[in-house]
């Protein structure tokens, strides 16, 4: 990656101020929250996220608020491939280099840069002096690449910390926070920690946020789920560190109200897939796939069950074989009337529907295998709340099907 960047005249050295975001869960949501609030305050930002859901160009959003044009992206990728000259390079590295080129060449007030995997060795970890570093909650995922223990994974995430660059931490388990704090002290990165320096609590239709700047009430974020409150708190705590780009209370409130982030407890109210359900049903979509996501979704399902105990919750789940189905599904089992398992379309690494159904039955679900999402939806004959979940790749196919109508 460094060799390629040198041949491209180091675009990473010519970027607007960068906010670098690592973590296991919530990275994309925090980036979306920051983008929405900064945009409401009149700031124009480039944004790099992954993976994409429907179109590859989603990964690179420019300061005009639009995804990069397909022809521009193709030209940038060709430029990067030519500069690389056939050297060893990964798909994500070449994509990141193209994004950095685009961001360096087009004016903006800042860059929101989401880590792809881990942090220390990630292709995005090439900016020597970002404006801020953020680490969302760290949990067990991608163990084949990042390590088997929470401490090992946290060490990889903390690899984005830089000397003198303030880092804002989301809620962390003790083992993760201990590692991050030690590495921050070693490299001289000031830390703002959840629970010590900032916190957020629900208060009716609002949230109470405490930061070094004081306490105030804010509207709940438009993103569904109590876990999104802490993502919002992390984002606002980070904004307070940007004295050179102040965001007023009105812009913060507007951004919280307007934020959108697809496939994170997204309500699919209309379209060809909701139309397959009985009248009075609701269809929801979430790309979560690890234990932390399962616990967050379990809390949402518990709320649904308490709110409408007569309305069953139906799950349609597809997962890759690299994930831990038990960790993801166990928190959902008490609240689901049935789980229909499907294979993730187009993914050779997907668990088969039969395999996943067998596993789900072991975890206490009334489980069955279905051919695909449409088949599973058609099998639901009574009004229900339906959640499609287990994979961002599955979520992408669902959104593509919705768009194809």
Give an account of the 3D structure.
- The model has no long low-confidence stretch (mean pLDDT 95).
- Helix content is 37%, strand content 16%.
- A 7-stranded mixed sheet has the order 3-2-4-1-5-6-7.
- The longest helix is centred in the last third of the chain and has 17 residues, at 291-307.
- It has 405 residues and is α/β, with parallel strands linked by helices.
- 48% of the residues are buried.
- It contains 14 helices and 16 strands.
- It is globular, with a radius of gyration of 21 Å.
- Helix 2 (27-40) crosses helix 8, helix 2 packs across helix 9 and helix 3 crosses helix 4 (91-105).
- Helix 11 (325-329) links the parallel strand 13 (313-317) and strand 14 (338-341).
- The protein folds into 2 domains: 2-258, UDP-N-acetylmuramoyl-L-alanine:D-glutamate ligase (3-Layer(aba) Sandwich); 266-403, Alpha-Beta Complex (Protein-Tyrosine Phosphatase, Chain A), CATH 3.90.190.20.
């Amino acid at each position: 990656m460094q060799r390629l960047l040198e041949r491209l005249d180091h675009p990473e050295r010519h970027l607007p101020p960068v906010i670098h975001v690592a973590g296991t869960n919530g990275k994309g949501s925090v980036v979306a929250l920051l983008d929405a609030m900064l945009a409401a305050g009149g700031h124009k930002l480039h944004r790099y996220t992954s993976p994409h859901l429907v179109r590859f160009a989603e990964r690179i959003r420019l300061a005009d608020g639009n995804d990069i044009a397909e022809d521009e992206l193709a030209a940038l990728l060709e430029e990067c491939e030519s500069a690389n000259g056939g050297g060893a390079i990964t798909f994500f590295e070449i994509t990141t280099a193209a994004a950095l080129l685009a961001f360096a060449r087009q004016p903006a007030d800042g860059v929101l840069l989401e880590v792809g995997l881990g942090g220390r060795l990630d292709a995005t970890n090439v900016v020597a002096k970002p404006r801020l570093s953020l680490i969302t909650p760290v949990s067990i995922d991608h163990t084949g690449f990042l390590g088997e223990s929470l401490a090992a994974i946290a060490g990889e995430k903390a690899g984005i910390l830089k000397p003198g660059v303030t880092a804002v931490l989301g809620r962390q388990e003790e083992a993760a926070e201990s590692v991050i704090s030690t590495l921050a002290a070693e490299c001289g990165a000031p830390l703002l920690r959840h629970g010590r320096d900032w916190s957020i609590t629900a208060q009716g239709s609002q949230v109470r946020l405490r930061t070094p700047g004081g306490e105030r009430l804010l509207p709940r974020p438009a993103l569904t789920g109590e876990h999104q409150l802490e993502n919002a708190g992390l984002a606002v705590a980070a904004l307070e560190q940007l004295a050179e780009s102040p965001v007023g209370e009105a812009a913060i409130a507007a951004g919280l109200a307007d934020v959108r982030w697809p496939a994170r407890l997204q309500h699919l109210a209309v379209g060809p897939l909701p139309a397959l359900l009985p009248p009075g049903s609701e269809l929801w979509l979430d790309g979560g796939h690890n234990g932390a996501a399962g616990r967050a979704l379990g809390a949402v399902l518990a709320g649904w069950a308490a709110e409408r105990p007569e309305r069953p919750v139906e799950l349609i789940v597809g997962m890759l074989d690299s994930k831990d189905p038990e960790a993801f599904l166990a928190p959902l089992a008490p609240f689901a009337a049935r789980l229909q398992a499907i294979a993730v379309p187009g993914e050779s690494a997907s668990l088969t529907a039969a395999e996943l159904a067998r596993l789900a039955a072991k975890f206490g679900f009334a489980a069955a295998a279905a051919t695909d999402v449409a088949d599973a939806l058609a099998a639901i004959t009574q009004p229900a709340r339906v959640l499609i979940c287990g994979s961002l790749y599955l979520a992408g196919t669902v959104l593509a099907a919705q768009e194809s109508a």
